[in-house]
Write a structure and sequence with these properties.
Blueprint: H1 18-23, H2 27-45, H3 52-71, H4 80-96, H5 105-117, H6 162-168, H7 188-200, H8 208-231, H9 240-243, H10 246-254, H11 259-274, H12 278-289, H13 311-331, H14 339-345, H15 364-384, H16 391-406, H17 415-424, H18 431-441, H19 446-474
C-alpha cells in the first residue's frame, strides 16, 4: 500500500469563515492553559491534606494528557509556542505566592548559598553551628537568634548505627532547615547555583529567590523542548506535558528543587548529543551530575564501543570530578558532607527502604542483589543500543527504569524524567513520577508503595508492548537520525 502524504498547511483549502474561524484555532490552547493553571493552583492549595493533593495531581496529569492531545489535533499557529510559554509561566505563579510545600529543602539551599558567600564551606559546618550564628535570621531560624547558643560546634562524626544516624539527622524546632546537625549533601554545581541566587536575594526574601529562579528554569526548559521538537519535525505543543505539568509547578515555583536545574542540563546534553557535539555533551552531563548524582546513571546511554565512543562519558566524569577539586582543596575529606549518612539513612546500604517493587516478593538483601544485576543489564543494553535508537529514548527508559528499580522516597527525583519523556516522545513514563507522589503519601506502608510503583511499571510495559506491536504492523521505522524517530506522532 502506498502511503499518501497529507498536504502541507500552506496548500490546504482556506477555512470557511476566514479570520473568525482561524481565531478559533487558539481556543483549545487557551482552554487548556486555563485548566492547567487551575489544576496547578488546586494541587498547591490543597497540599495541607495527606491524600487530596495527590488525587488532584493524578487527575490533573490525566487531564493534561488529554489537553495535549486535543491541542495538537489542530495545525499549530504562528503564536502557538508563545502561548505555551505564557501559560507555562502562569502555571508557576501559584507556587511563588506561598512558602515551599512538598519539602523544606529550599531552606537548606538558602543556607548553603549564604554560608558560601560568608567565605565558609557548607561541607565543614552544620546549620546549628554556633560559629555561624551571625548568619541566622528569623525566617531560617525562627527559634534561634544570632545571640543564642545552640551548643553545636564543628562538623559531627557520622555514625553507622541506624538509631544514632536517625537521631543525628532529626529536625530541630528552632530552625526550618532540615537535618540542621549535619553538613550538606549537595554537589558543587548545585552549590554554585545556591551561591549565585543568594547573592541576588536579600535575606528578608527567604526562599523566594530560589523559587523564582526555579520557575524561570522551568519556563526555559519549556522553550528548549518546544524548539527542539520543532527542529525534529515534531509538534512543539507537546512541550505542554512539561511546561503545564502540576508536578513541575510544585517542584519549581513552589519547592524550588534543584532537580529542575538537573532537568535543564540533561535536556541540553541530549540535544547536543543528537547534534554530535560529544565534548559539550560531556560538559553538560557532568554538570548535571554535579547538581544531582542521578544523571550519572545515564552515562551508558552516551557510551559506544567504537572510536571516540568514550569521549562524552570521559568528559562527563572529568567535569564531575573537577567540580569537586576547589572544595577538596578547601576542606579535604569533609567534602563528602553528609552524603554517606544520607545514603545509609535512605536505605542504599541495606536495601531496607528501596526497591519497593522487588520488596513485594524479595527480602532486603536479595532485593539489593537483583537490583544490581538488573541495573548492570540495563546499562549494557543501553550501550548496545547506542546509535540504533534516538539517545533521548535511551535516556528516558534508562532514567525511568532506575527510578522503578530503586523507588526513591522523594518524588521530585522524577522531575527530569518528565522532560526526557517529552523529548523522547514516550509519554507513558509520566506514570512513574505520578506514582512517586502517591507512594510519598503512603510513606510507611511498604505494601501499598510497592503496588503503586508496580502499577506504574505495568503501565509503561503495556505502552511499550502496544507500540512494538504497532511498529511491527507498520513495518520498518526510521533510523536514529530520522526526524520522527522515537517521537510522539506529529499532528
Amino acid at each position: 500500500m502506498v502511503a499518501v502524504q497529507r498536504p502541507s498547511s500552506s496548500l490546504r483549502r482556506p477555512a470557511v469563515g476566514g479570520p473568525a474561524r482561524a481565531s478559533l484555532r487558539g481556543l483549545p490552547l487557551a482552554i487548556g492553559g486555563l485548566v492547567s493553571v487551575v489544576g496547578s493552583t488546586a494541587v498547591i492549595a490543597t497540599a495541607s491534606a495527606a491524600w487530596w493533593p495527590n488525587l488532584v495531581l493524578v487527575a490533573a496529569m490525566l487531564l493534561l494528557g488529554g489537553i495535549a492531545w486535543m491541542i495538537t489535533r489542530r495545525p499549530a499557529g504562528p503564536r502557538a509556542v508563545l502561548g505555551i510559554l505564557a501559560f507555562a509561566a502562569v502555571c508557576q505563579v501559584p507556587g511563588l505566592t506561598l512558602a515551599p510545600i512538598t519539602s523544606t529543602d529550599a531552606y537548606r539551599y538558602v543556607w548553603d548559598g549564604r554560608v558560601q558567600l560568608s567565605g565558609t564551606s557548607p561541607y565543614s559546618h552544620v546549620p546549628l553551628d554556633d560559629a555561624l550564628a551571625r548568619l541566622r535570621d528569623p525566617i531560617l531560624f525562627p527559634g534561634l537568634s544570632p545571640a543564642d547558643r545552640s551548643g553545636v560546634t564543628g562538623p559531627p562524626r557520622i555514625p553507622h548505627d541506624p538509631a544514632a544516624l536517625t537521631a543525628l539527622s532529626a529536625d530541630d524546632p528552632r530552625t526550618r532547615i532540615n537535618r540542621p546537625r549535619v553538613p550538606t549533601i549537595y554537589p558543587p554545581v548545585a552549590q554554585a547555583y545556591f551561591t549565585a541566587v543568594a547573592f541576588l536575594t536579600p535575606w528578608s526574601a527567604g526562599t523566594f529567590g530560589l523559587q523564582l529562579a526555579a520557575a524561570a528554569l522551568a519556563v526555559g526548559v519549556t522553550a528548549l523542548l518546544a524548539t527542539e521538537l520543532r527542529r525534529r519535525n515534531r509538534d512543539p505543543r507537546w512541550a505542554v506535558l512539561w511546561g503545564w505539568s502540576p508536578i513541575v509547578a510544585l517542584e519549581a515555583g513552589s519547592a524550588a528543587h534543584i532537580d529542575v536545574l538537573a532537568a535543564a542540563l540533561l535536556v541540553a546534553a541530549v540535544i547536543t548529543a543528537a547534534r554530535r557535539a560529544p565534548v559539550i555533551t560531556g560538559l553538560l552531563l557532568g554538570a548535571a551530575a554535579s547538581v544531582k548524582l542521578l544523571p550519572l546513571l545515564l552515562l551508558p546511554a552516551f557510551t559506544a564501543v567504537r572510536r571516540h565512543g568514550l569521549t562524552t562519558p570521559l568528559v562527563a566524569v572529568g567535569t564531575f570530578v573537577a567540580s569537586y577539586v576547589p572544595y577538596v582543596l578547601a576542606v579535604g575529606t569533609l567534602v563528602v558532607g553528609f552524603l554517606p549518612g544520607y545514603l545509609g539513612q535512605e536505605g542504599f546500604s541495606d536495601g531496607s527502604s528501596r526497591s519497593a517493587i522487588l520488596g513485594l516478593v524479595l527480602p532486603p538483601m536479595a532485593r539489593q542483589l537483583v537490583t544490581a544485576v538488573l541495573a548492570i543489564a540495563l546499562a549494557l543494553l543501553a550501550i548496545r543500543l547506542h546509535g540504533r535508537q534516538p539517545i533521548a529514548v535511551t535516556c528516558c527508559w534508562l532514567y525511568g527504569a532506575a527510578l522503578l528499580l530503586t523507588t526513591p522516597t522523594y518524588p521530585w527525583y522524577g522531575v527530569p524524567l518528565i522532560a526526557l519523556a517529552v523529548l523522547a516522545g514516550r509519554a507513558e513514563w509520566l506514570a512513574v513520577p505520578v506514582a512517586s507522589y502517591l507512594a510519598y503519601a503512603s510513606f510507611g506502608h511498604e505494601l501499598r508503595q510497592g503496588l503503586i510503583h508496580l502499577t506504574a511499571a505495568l503501565t509503561v510495559i503495556t505502552a511499550i508492548s502496544l507500540r512494538h506491536r504497532s511498529g511491527l504492523r507498520r513495518g520498518p521505522v526510521p533510523r536514529a537520525g530520522g526526524s520522527a524517530a522515537g517521537m510522539i506522532p506529529p499532528s
